[in-house]
């Protein structure tokens, strides 16, 4: 049984690590600030939970397990607030999102009603 | 006095997490509990009183569904990031909303932001401003499944 947990844990940790790198690559590749926030979201919303679950699978039933679980809940609860605050600060600072012009007529609406 | 209840709950929670009986640690704990209660007091001034969150089975079912959506959109975004062509078509548009209570609104805006590929940049009375990496993400939100699920929670 513990061998199953070991392998499952290794799988989660590996997936989490790959997703962390993916988030970093995304931040580098995305064209503007707002798109980068999305890329950073991969690290926060999937990579971090996978890493924490991977760690939990290796732990005994204890207080520490509950604490790691709480860290997981807090990350997921506070991440949107941080992302929203960053996006709003960028807008407030005069950054305008880069929008694709491929769907032509519809793009005007957004900027005019803010 | 509900601040007293918050104070006691935070103190108990802190004790539950810490478990130390050193004077310095206890002093720091007391300080942080008082600080958080003061923050809550300040927030209540903005929000106009406190609201009780009705935690039920429905909320947990919604959170489970939301986590699954987060995983799905993460997979889509990861494929997009590793695609040499970087196939993104960012849009920044208005999304009309019909959520009524402040809690529903906060839950909806946060759920949108938590899902990679969609980001709430502004929350107004009857609409949000949404930044999407792909028009498909916005179309999915306009389809209203998430909104419907939140409204049916009845909180």
From TrEMBL, chain A:
Segments traversing the membrane: 6-28, 40-59, 65-82
Superkingdom, natural source: Bacteria
Presence of the UniProt keyword DNA-binding in the record: no
Region annotation Disordered: where it falls in the sequence: 95-114
UniProt biased composition (Polar residues): 103-114
Keywords on record: Membrane, Transmembrane, Transmembrane helix
GO molecular function, one term: sodium:proton antiporter activity
Keyword Cytoplasm carried by entry: no
Name of the protein in its database record: Sodium:proton antiporter
Pfam families the record matches: PhaG_MnhG_YufB
Automatic annotation (TrEMBL), chain B:
Record keyword Transmembrane present: yes
Transmembrane portions of the chain: 7-40, 60-82
GO cellular component: plasma membrane
Localization per record: Cell membrane
Major location category of this protein: membrane
Keyword terms, alphabetized: Cell membrane, Membrane, Transmembrane, Transmembrane helix
Name of the molecule in the record: Cation transporter
Organism name: Candidatus Sedimenticola endophacoides
């Amino acid at each position: 049984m513990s061998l199953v947990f070991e392998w499952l844990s290794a799988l989660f940790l590996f997936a989490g690590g790959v997703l962390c790198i993916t988030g970093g690559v995304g931040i580098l590749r995305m064209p503007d600030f707002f798109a980068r926030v999305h890329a950073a979201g991969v690290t926060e919303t999937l990579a971090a939970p996978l890493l924490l679950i991977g760690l939990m699978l290796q732990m005994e039933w204890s207080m520490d397990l509950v604490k790691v679980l709480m860290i997981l809940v807090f990350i997921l609860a506070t991440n949107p607030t941080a992302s929203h605050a960053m996006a709003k600060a960028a807008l407030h600072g005069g950054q305008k999102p880069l929008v694709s012009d491929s769907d032509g007529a519809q793009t005007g609406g957004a900027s005019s009603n803010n | 006095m509900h601040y007293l209840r918050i104070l006691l709950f935070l103190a108990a929670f802190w004790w539950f997490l810490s478990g130390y009986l050193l004077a310095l640690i206890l002093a720091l704990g007391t300080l942080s509990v008082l600080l958080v209660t003061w923050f809550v007091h300040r927030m209540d001034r903005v929000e106009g009183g406190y609201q009780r969150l009705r935690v039920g089975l429905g909320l947990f079912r919604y959170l489970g569904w939301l986590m699954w959506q987060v995983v799905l959109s993460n997979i889509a975004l990861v494929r997009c990031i590793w695609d040499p062509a970087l196939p993104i078509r960012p849009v920044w548009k208005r999304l009309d909303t019909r959520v009524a209570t402040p809690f529903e609104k906060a839950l909806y805006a946060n759920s949108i932001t938590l899902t990679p590929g969609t980001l709430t940049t502004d929350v107004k009375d009857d609409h949000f401003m949404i930044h999407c990496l792909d028009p498909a993400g916005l179309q999915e939100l306009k389809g209203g499944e998430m909104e419907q699920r939140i409204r049916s929670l009845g909180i």
